[in-house]
Amino acid sequence: MKLAIVGYGYWGTNITRTLKELGHEIEFLFDTDPARMEKASENYKFKQASSLDEILDSDVEYVFVATPPNTHFEISKRILQSGKNVFVEKPISTSYEQSYDLFAVAEKHGKTLFVDHTFVFSEPVIFLRKMIREGGLGNLVYINSRRINLGLFQQHVDVIWDLAVHDFSIIDFLVGLDISRFSVYKKKYNSFPQDAFANINLELNSGLMINVSVSWLSPVKVREMILGGSEKMAVYDDTLTNKIKIFDCGVVIKENFSKEELYSRMVQYKLGDVFEPEIPSKQALTNSINAFFKTVKTGKYFGNDRDSVLRVSKTLEIISRS
Q1: Is residue 245 located within the same domain as residue 143?
Q2: Alpha-carbon distance 282 to 126, whole Å?
Q3: Which of 121, 160, 166, 194 is most buried, by the most CB atoms less than 10 A from its CB?
Q4: Does residue 289 lie in a domain region?
Q5: What's the CA gap between 166 and 173, in Å, rounded?
Q6: Tens digit of pLDDT for each residue in 19-59?
């Protein structure tokens, strides 16, 4: 397979390293910053493309796009139109309309557009989805998620497009983003043009309540999601080595009728053991890249198909612009 990478910033370096670990050769690498390309050439062998056009005119089949979010649409569209498959980091674009258009272009040219909603491919999230679908938590009541850290402040997207995209893609993968209503509180920091923190509340049509907190202004890095069920509860902390804890506890409401047929409700707390399931340690980005190649070959997506990506994109746009 002939591969090219466009963008060698933070995520581009991770993609490049992972591709090499998987044994793939890189044909071209292009970044508008010559210093970045020089740095990459110290560790990898590739042709330094002088422009994106050089990649478009080549016989490369797969292009990995890891550029700033506001450039994703134009770059990905040109690559698809040149007859190549695209792997683009999150978010797919900065608007729902652009996201929809990109999938239309991919379909028109018979190529794969693969969006790297990385956490959809993480082993802990895959484990949680299986547990939910098998009823292991009972009836899911709420999801509470915090994704906060100190920076990096983004110039072209707000904190919702930058961080909440992860939470929404995970939630859609687990239970579907079938939103009934929402509320959001968000705010900028001083004179910085983008919203720097937000607190988002969602209610799904199923009745499931969701709270997502995102921030660029936290002194500590938190990547935590709590799932409350009627039978058990789960905590997913991506900063820990053992990322999943299952709590055999919950709140039970018993409904009884007395002899006089008076209705009463008793709230009880069920407290039990805590266990940490054994989960494969395979990296999410490794799974994501392998899924990209498999999707190109089979035409079958896993977890981040067109409909899922568009649901996430629409949710981001509605909440960010509300």
Answers
A1: yes
A2: 12
A3: 160
A4: no
A5: 11
A6: 999 999 999 999 999 999 999 999 999 999 999 999 999 99
